[in-house]
Amino acid sequence: MMTAPHTAAANVALVRGTLDAFNEGDLDTCVALMGPDFVMNLAGLPPMRGPDVWRQGAAVIRTGFPDLHARIDDLVAEGDRVAARLTFRGTHQGEFLGVPATGRTVEYVSHEFYRFADGLVAEEWICSDLASLQAQLTAS
């Protein structure tokens, strides 16, 4: 696979492309843009390694929210890093975090940081507002 030039602008384009693929439900393209030693860091959990771990997590959230869409609110890049503020919106149509489908439309914010190596995503840090999401799922 050909890699993009190693510039902040190329890294921003890679993040945009990955999020476009995610929004289309194209997890194969998302994984193809990750390096083989990819590391995913979710707030409060130990680091998880490998693109397949990311794919499994994305599949879980897609099961709960098949129409989940990420809107880019901010992207800031410097060197080999990109920071993103995203708003996710979707309909709760399957079990998620132990909560059966409610049919509710939910929206939550996620702050995500990416590091690139050799034109691919090497590492991702995700800090999503899961407390807000959980409250929307369990509200009376």
How would you summarize this macromolecular structure in one to three sentences?
This protein is an alpha+beta fold.
Note down, in words, how this protein is organized.
The chain has a 6-stranded mixed β-sheet with strand order 2-1-6-5-4-3. The protein is built from 4 helices and 6 strands. The protein is globular. Strand 3 and strand 4 (81-91) form a beta hairpin. It has a single domain, classed as Nuclear Transport Factor 2, Chain: A (Roll). The protein is an alpha+beta fold and 140 residues long. It has helices spanning 8-23, 27-32, 51-64, 130-138, and strands at residues 34-42, 48-49, 69-78, 81-91, 105-117, 120-128. The chain starts with 7 loop residues before the first helix and ends with a helix.
Number of domains: 1
CATH architectural designation: Roll
Helix residue percentage: 25-40%
Q: Which radius of gyration do the C-alpha atoms yield?
A: 15 Å
Low-confidence blocks of residues: none
**What fraction strand?**
35-45%
Number of strands: 6
> What would you call the shape?
globular
